[in-house]
Amino acid sequence: MKKNRRIFGTVLLTLAIIFFYLPIVYMIVFSFNDSKSLTAFTGFSLRWYEHMLESRDMMQSLYTTFSIAIISTVVSTVAGTIAAIGISKSRKIVRDVMEQVNNLPIMNPDIVTAIGFMLLFITFRVEKGYMTMLLAHIAFCIPFVMLSVMPKIRSLDPNLADAAMDLGATPWQSLIKVIVPQITPGIVSGALIAFTMSVDDFIISYFVTGSGVKNLSIMVYTMSKRVNPSINAISTLVVVIIFIALIVINVTSAIMAKREKKAEIGKRKWVLPTIAIILVLAIGIGATSFGQTSSSLPFAGETLYIYLPGEYMGEDIVSDFEAYTGATVVVENFESNEQMYIKVANGGNYDLLIPSDYMIERLIQEDLIQKLDQSKLDCMPKIVDNIKGMPYDPQNEYGIPYFWGTVGIIYDTTVVDEEDLENDGFAVFLNEKYKGNIYLYDSERDSFMMALKNLGYSMNTESEEELSAAYNWLVKCVETMEAQIVTDEIIDNMINGRKALGLIYSGDATYVMSENEDMGFYMPNEGTNQWVDAMVIPKNAKNPDLAYEFMNFITNYEAAYDNSSWVGYTSPNRDVMNDLFGPDGDYEGIDAYIPRTDNENDEAFCYNDRTRKIMSNLWSKVKIAASNAE
User: Fold this and answer.
1) In angstroms, rounded to a whole number, what is the distance separating the alpha carbons of residues 334 and 356?
2) HSE (CB half, 13 Å, CA atoms) of 313?
3) Residue (of 499, 477, 480) closest to 489 by Cα position
4) Which secondary structure element, helix H or strand E, spans residue 128, and what is its range?
5) Cβ-contact 142, 76 below 8 angstroms
6) Where are the beta strands (DSSP E) in 213-297?
7) Distance of alpha carbon 154 from alpha carbon 176, whole angstroms
8) How far is it, in rounded angstroms, from Cα 146 to Cα 603?
């Protein structure tokens, strides 16, 4: 019987270990993948490690993550231990109250704590960046240290310190030589928890940072367009660093345990702090190598702050621009235009923004961006005529196009009948032949555009009746067709042919078709969204001249080619667009790369706050209906 229990226990433990470590092994294996795919291994390569090491953004994020984790762990451990000891010596009523006060931030949702910190820094006009993130990490780590230390203090004889002082020890000696050694396990546990919480944190860090400062969690989260496989490489590096640290800690502990002489033990107590200091110095020295420039270049010593969607810039753009100008470029990413708006409207300092057309219209209406000085620009003659004079900026006074495209249907040519696409248009998402085999995109604007266009309405309608009809269309789709609502995972899923069809941006479709020749792209004749993302300069930009320089640089042939070929979205540069689509181009014959411009039913989104709120509310109900249908 006991033998069976042991076997059963061993099997359960083995399964638990496999369940925990299999994703890590999977990540490590795919960090050596030759292609961009996150699910199909095409061959061994170190390209993503090379990309990681060349990416200042990634290495800076790694530096920020571990330097803040180490510093906040040391400070919060010292502060939390002293606070716990002090509380233990207080009156019972004070002790009980402080223990409850300490439990509150632990039990508080992270989002509440994050917003509280953000409002605090805004109220006192503290510029957000490295220091605000560090202070926030110290503050939210201290309660966890106190929680670990206080049970150890309660288990001590309360007369221990008095006995030590009766024997001649000073209060400081009593604390350091008597109390602290007794509660060391609690201190170590608290320090490890603080370190783990700091390294893992995303929500609080996201709300308290600024000026391009981000840790690894923020960097991964803001890679919203595509998850770059180099993230597997940097995640593997983190695993290796932690693995080495654990080996060092265990080996050091074993050595210390074997030492019998107190003098030797005393010396060894400094090993771990010394290692921590060396690690901080090493990372710091490595970080100082970033941004070294030649003083003879025109913008040497200056900094350009860019705010744009994640994974929306060619891999060599930043390094090439820095080499060209001598400036330092700080890139910060946003997940949505609405997220970008909140930061800019609340005084976020950036020199260059890259939002979508409808959001640029809102920024113009609220006087948050400045008119461009055309005398400082030489790029307009290179821009495709079709995206000049767009409704959001009819005189081209505020923005320079960055990427453009349409929204259409990505489909598996081996599964989907093209006649169905031609006959049904967007109604193919209601064709029961493809039930359970479709993706919808998690965007209220584009999903409602699809429904409205199929119903014969304008996607900029303000009619609640028409919006209600589109809502019913979408509810029918999710309830009867078992549609799966996704975001950018549609890219990798369609590359691997997991569904028959889905709603997708043309640039993402271009990438999918370049990876899987069985995929096609279709834009219904009933019309679609023709969108433009453009570069604009905020009213509070500190370095607009450098922003103009970047606008000219990114629209030049070489940079525009690198940008478009890497990201997959259509370049505004006329020559680059034609060459990438033409013979020997990266996207030769892939029709998704060239947006449609000759259909009178195609529209651009216009900003309307009332309609946006209605759509957002109705889309939430559609997603609930989709969840209930699963």
Assistant:
1) 12
2) 29
3) 499
4) none
5) yes
6) none
7) 17
8) 58
Type of residue numbered 579:
D
Q: Provide the 10 A C-beta neighbour count for residue 158.
A: 10
Residues 6 or more apart whose CB falls under 8 angstroms from that of 420 comprise: 428, 431, 433
The answer to pTM > 0.85 is: no
Q: How many CB atoms lie within 10 A of CB 161?
A: 18
Instruction: With beta carbons less than 8 A apart as the criterion, state whether 439 and 493 touch.
Output: yes
Measured between alpha carbons, how far is residue 325 from residues 312, 374, 554 in Å? 21, 20, 13
Tell me the residue length of the chain: 630
DSSP string across 259-282: --SHHHHHHHTTHHHHHHHHHHHH
Residue 78, pLDDT > 70, answer yes
Residue type, position 545, single letter: D
The conformation of residue 34, written as its DSSP 8-state character, comes to S
Supply 76's token pair: 């919060």
Q: Which of 99-108, 288-297, 609-618 has the highest mean pLDDT?
A: 609-618
CA distance 200 to 220: 12
pLDDT of residue 1: 62
- Domains for the chain: give ranges and CATH numbers: 54-222 (1.10.3720.10), 303-403+534-581 (3.40.190.10), 405-532+589-629 (3.40.190.10)
Model confidence at 286, pLDDT cuts 50, 70, 90, reads: very low
Q: What are phi and psi of 86, to 5 degrees?
A: -65, -45
CB neighbours (10 Å) of residue 566?
17
Contact yes or no for 447/407 (Cβ under 8 A): no
The bridge status of strand 328-334 relative to strand 484-486 is: unpaired
Residue that wins the pLDDT comparison between 335 and 540: 540
Three-state DSSP string of 368-396? CECCCCHHHCCCHHHECHHHCCCCCCCCC
Cβ-proximal residues to 604 (8 Å cutoff; 6+ apart), any chain: 357, 358, 390, 391, 392, 529, 530, 531, 532
Neighbours of 101 (CB within 10 A): 11
Give the pLDDT mean for 489-514.
92
Q: Rg of the chain's alpha carbons, rounded to an integer?
A: 29
User: What's the 3-state SS for 325-370?
Assistant: HCCEEEEEEECCHHHHHHHHHCCCCCCEECCEHHHHHHHHHCCCEC
Q: 452 near 423, Cβ under 8 Å? A: no
Q: How many CB atoms lie within 10 A of CB 260?
A: 7
Find where tokens 């976020």 sit.
348
